[in-house]
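Report of the visiting student (M.T.), summer placement. My assignment was to run the structure pipeline on a short list of targets and document each run. The first record concerns EF-hand domain-containing protein D2.
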Amino acid sequence: MAAAAAAEELAGRRGRGPEPGPGPGSPAAGRAGVEGSPGGGRRVFSPAGEFREFSRRQLRDMERLFRQYDAGKDGFIDLMELKLMMEKLGAPQTHLGLKNMIKEVDEDLDSKLSFREFLLIFRKAAAGELQEDSGLHALARLSEIDVSTEGVKGAKSFFEAKVQAIHDASRFEEEIKAEQEEKKKQAEELKQRKAAFKELQSTFKQ
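After the run finished, the structure tokens were exported:
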């Protein structure tokens, strides 16, 4: 009897097939995407290629700052991690203020900061696109890692240098045009003097 029951149970298990694995919504199924696997949809980018206004050393220091506050080590700074960061920088924000900080640079609308979005804060600060009383402006200003402050100044100098270069190029072109006009005027005057001299010579010959 026991042998028959065991045989029936074994046959039933074979009929049912394998036990189901983790479903699409389970933590195990989603872990690969969180870790940034090819199927996770995370954007791959080159900081040095996209943020050329910053030096490699500045980008490395910015990355260290980012990792310092990425407590979950998932490649993002979420709202609670940003809250801790602003408190440690001496500029605590309200819950709404923190949400607005993230929203201003949250290009993929996932309500957290990727490293690329973190770098956008400093780019915007350098370009003067952040309000002085905003949380992001405080973050860029109060970050005490060398690059965070120097990076903003360096980026500002970079943009100022570009504007100056455009201005200088325009002024240079204007100077060239003025010189060409002056030479043209001098050539015309010389031509007129020669013509007058020839006319005067012909008068004396008569």
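The radius of gyration is 35 Å. Residues 13-40, 145-152 have pLDDT under 50 and may be disordered. I thank the supervising group for their guidance throughout the placement.
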